[in-house]
Design a protein that fits this description.
- Helix content is 30%, strand content 40%.
- By secondary structure, the chain is α+β, with helices and mostly antiparallel strands.
- The protein has a single domain, classed as Alpha-Beta Plaits (2-Layer Sandwich).
- A 5-stranded mixed sheet has the order 4-1-3-2-5, covered by helices on one side.
- A hairpin with a 5-residue loop joins β2 and β3.
- α1 runs antiparallel to α2.
Length: 91
Amino acid sequence: MKKSLRLFLTGSVQGMFFEQFVSESAKRLDVRGYIRKLEDGRAEIFLEGDKNKVDEMTALCKRGTQHTQIRNVEEKPERFQDFKEFRVLKI
Protein backbone atom coordinates (compact mmCIF):
# COMPACT_ATOMS: atom_id res chain seq x y z
CA MET A 1 0.00 0.00 0.00
CA LYS A 2 1.30 3.44 -0.97
CA LYS A 3 1.38 6.49 1.28
CA SER A 4 2.21 10.18 0.83
CA LEU A 5 2.83 12.57 3.69
CA ARG A 6 4.07 16.14 4.07
CA LEU A 7 5.92 17.08 7.25
CA PHE A 8 6.74 20.55 8.56
CA LEU A 9 9.45 20.46 11.23
CA THR A 10 10.34 23.28 13.59
CA GLY A 11 13.59 23.29 15.55
CA SER A 12 17.25 23.09 14.64
CA VAL A 13 16.48 21.67 11.20
CA GLN A 14 18.14 24.24 8.93
CA GLY A 15 21.61 22.71 8.81
CA MET A 16 22.96 20.77 5.87
CA PHE A 17 23.68 17.82 8.20
CA PHE A 18 19.95 17.38 8.85
CA GLU A 19 19.23 17.53 5.10
CA GLN A 20 21.94 14.94 4.48
CA PHE A 21 20.59 12.69 7.25
CA VAL A 22 17.05 12.85 5.82
CA SER A 23 18.22 12.36 2.22
CA GLU A 24 20.43 9.36 3.04
CA SER A 25 17.73 7.79 5.21
CA ALA A 26 15.12 8.20 2.46
CA LYS A 27 17.38 6.62 -0.14
CA ARG A 28 18.22 3.73 2.20
CA LEU A 29 14.50 3.09 2.84
CA ASP A 30 13.51 3.63 -0.82
CA VAL A 31 11.26 6.56 0.07
CA ARG A 32 10.87 9.28 -2.54
CA GLY A 33 10.04 12.98 -2.33
CA TYR A 34 12.05 15.98 -1.14
CA ILE A 35 13.28 18.13 1.71
CA ARG A 36 13.62 21.89 1.56
CA LYS A 37 14.30 24.72 3.96
CA LEU A 38 11.50 27.25 4.25
CA GLU A 39 12.05 30.98 4.73
CA ASP A 40 10.31 30.86 8.13
CA GLY A 41 12.97 28.49 9.51
CA ARG A 42 11.02 25.25 9.19
CA ALA A 43 11.94 22.26 7.07
CA GLU A 44 9.35 20.83 4.68
CA ILE A 45 9.67 17.13 3.92
CA PHE A 46 7.48 15.33 1.39
CA LEU A 47 7.59 11.54 1.69
CA GLU A 48 5.97 8.88 -0.45
CA GLY A 49 6.36 5.18 -1.01
CA ASP A 50 5.41 1.97 0.75
CA LYS A 51 3.31 2.77 3.85
CA ASN A 52 5.62 0.96 6.30
CA LYS A 53 8.72 2.67 4.85
CA VAL A 54 7.07 6.12 4.99
CA ASP A 55 6.06 5.47 8.60
CA GLU A 56 9.63 4.44 9.45
CA MET A 57 11.00 7.51 7.67
CA THR A 58 8.54 9.76 9.52
CA ALA A 59 9.77 8.40 12.86
CA LEU A 60 13.39 9.09 11.80
CA CYS A 61 12.52 12.66 10.80
CA LYS A 62 10.76 13.29 14.12
CA ARG A 63 13.77 12.00 16.04
CA GLY A 64 16.46 13.64 13.88
CA THR A 65 20.16 13.28 14.54
CA GLN A 66 21.92 13.57 17.88
CA HIS A 67 22.51 17.27 17.12
CA THR A 68 18.93 18.00 16.02
CA GLN A 69 16.33 19.47 18.33
CA ILE A 70 12.83 19.00 16.93
CA ARG A 71 10.33 21.25 18.71
CA ASN A 72 7.22 20.67 16.60
CA VAL A 73 6.08 18.42 13.75
CA GLU A 74 3.01 19.01 11.61
CA GLU A 75 1.82 16.10 9.46
CA LYS A 76 -0.42 16.47 6.45
CA PRO A 77 -1.60 13.50 4.34
CA GLU A 78 -1.10 14.15 0.62
CA ARG A 79 -2.17 12.73 -2.72
CA PHE A 80 0.36 10.27 -4.18
CA GLN A 81 2.48 12.08 -6.80
CA ASP A 82 4.78 9.25 -7.98
CA PHE A 83 8.15 10.91 -7.36
CA LYS A 84 11.04 8.98 -8.91
CA GLU A 85 13.72 9.87 -6.32
CA PHE A 86 14.41 11.81 -3.13
CA ARG A 87 15.93 15.26 -3.60
CA VAL A 88 17.20 18.20 -1.57
CA LEU A 89 15.52 21.29 -3.02
CA LYS A 90 16.74 24.86 -2.75
CA ILE A 91 14.35 27.81 -2.69
